[in-house]
């Protein structure tokens, strides 16, 4: 799997009930982590005013990269 760069917009592909986050919520990758020998990403979730309401370490396979402009496939 290709690494997701820092500051990339991502959406959850599954619910994370322990963190009160649901599939489709949008966040920003803010750090790359190693967790128990596996790669994880620290993702910041914030509201429309820029206030952070969650920062969670998430496996890359639980995220979908969002694109703001059309990119060549």
Topology diagram in text:
Elements: E1 9-12, E2 26-35, E3 38-46, E4 52-58, E5 63-65
Antiparallel strand pairs: 1-2, 1-5, 2-3, 3-4
Structure description:
The protein has strands at 9-12, 26-35, 38-46, 52-58, 63-65. It is mainly β. It has one domain (9-65). Strands 4-3-2-1-5 form a 5-stranded antiparallel beta sheet, with no helix packed on it. The mean pLDDT is 92.
Strand order of the largest sheet: 4-3-2-1-5
Largest sheet: 5 strands, antiparallel
Number of helices: 0
The helix content is under 10%
Total beta-strand segments: 5
Rg, nearest Å: 12 Å
| Beta-strand content bin | over 45%
Question: What series of H and E elements makes up the topology?
Answer: EEEEE
Q: Which whole number gives the mean pLDDT?
A: 92
How many domains make up the coordinates?
1
Helix/strand-derived category reads mainly beta
What shape does the CA trace take?
globular
- Uncertain spans: none
End-to-end Cα distance, whole Å, is 16 Å
